[in-house]
What does this fold into?
Amino acid sequence: MFRKVLVANRGEIAVRVVRACEELNVGTVAVYSDADKNSGHVRHADEAYNVGPARAADSYLDHDAVIEAARKADADAIHPGYGFLAENASFARNVEEAEGITWIGPSSDAMESLGEKTKARKIMAEADVPIVPGTTDPVTEPEEITDFADEHGYPVAIKAEGGGGGRGMKVVEAESEVEAQLESARREGEAYFDNDSVYLERYLENPRHIEVQIVADEHGNVRHLGERDCSLQRRHQKVIEEGPSPALTDELREKIGEAARRGVAAADYTNAGTVEFLVEEDLDRDGLLDPDANFYFLEVNTRIQVEHCVTEEITGLDIVKRQIRVAAGEELDFAQDDVEIDGHAMEFRINAENAAKDFQPATGGKLTTYDPPGGLGVRLDDALRQGDELVTDYDSMIAKLIVWGEDREECIERSLRALREYEIEGITTIIPFHRLMLSDERFVEGTHTTKYLDEELDRSRIEQAQDQWGPADGAATAADDEEVVEREFTVEVNGKRFEVELEERGAPAIPTGQGASASGSSGPQHRSAADEPDDAAAAAAGDGESVTAEMQGTILSIEVAEGDEVSPGDVVVVLEAMKMENDIVASAGGTVSEIPISEGESVDMGDTLVVLE
It folds into this structure.
């Protein structure tokens, strides 16, 4: 077994891995960016090392910085969690080649073959796993898309090779959209996965999304742990996951599970992973899919997933601990026939978003109240505590609520109770939306598909839920007026974190300046436009009309240049926020006189993007 594991991630998944290590009596190391210096995962680990600025590309995605932190900490293994570098085969190979450090995950070769979707499709087809009609080689020209559509019809899905979870996927509804959607998919692939290669698939209009959890060791054992139903999605992003699926017959369940095992074995895959499928909708009178319904391989997630907790609750198996044991060379300690599904579980992603405003992510805030639920069958995976500031540089998910019941009916009832108990003040979350869905007829019946939220649900119902169960006006942004100065001195020696905390009442705030910050950190500080003096901000805006950022995010592309003439409604910048591209348009016409931002840069809400004269 390992002595010390570095967790190359943040937030609740980092805490989840740390806890698994602690139960195995393994030491833990956290890494953090400047934005995360006070985050929960840092508090939970035995040691913590700074790996760079807030921008993920300069910290959590920096291969050298993460591996160097492992060397400084004398860690002998790295666990990537999910997101960031978790499915990056190049990073996995770098870890494999680093002397004395083990990669906790599938081999880089398996990640490469299954992580790149065209290669994965070839492997699955050879293993007799059904695949959606599509290309097995990347496409580069618009004509390839129109030719594909001539054969299979519209809509067509353009997917990034390294994509997943909806990122890097664009749906082409008509020939007029081909060029723009191809460019957009390639741009997202490059931005998120450092790979602008894309391929095509026939777009299934109204499917169920079923995924199978697998674990495989280095001794040839491959097990599947049942399926999860992830059909409740918004713009291809999962919102509520559950297991087992309420739509599968036992016969179809067995077919899909065995297909997943077969495909993974053919890829010589080890460690944990998830094989995702789309099942064409064809429900009988009992709301179940036909045993002979068509199901198609979608992708393999070569990592632990956000919703792995659902499977843990219904199988009683700790998947993360088995990831660590498998990486240490141990053999799986259970046979396929030992896997039993007990009861029903659901996972609710507690995102800092306002569902009534098209799930707009929060741009800041402080958890003035944070009182999570408890009781029988209730599990919380989070990294927060009351008083924490919301970090908005990354994903909007702040916690996961996982609820188990003896059957689906009890699981829904218990979930409603837990959501009512969950008290969060200081930021807006999608808890009201979750409460709505647990009283929604289609969801309760289990007959929803991946299109239900985007195309069928009455949007006014979400607004009503937010008004009824959301925070009162001003509660989400209320300032804490208590005069308490918390002096948290953070000292970094060779990148390693040491802390000294002091709380004083009635004391003056510590002045900021060179070598100090409001929290006493001596490390480099992340500044936004809001930190600059008023005259500097005015200078940046010039004398013309400013087009500003509507939310915190990352600049994906700048669509104009200085001197260009812009009309009202023209797109000037494409901004990524919370896994979605947002077109920032000019509200008035004019000539572009200044562009104070650059592609790849992180911006805050209200920052000037373009100045028009």
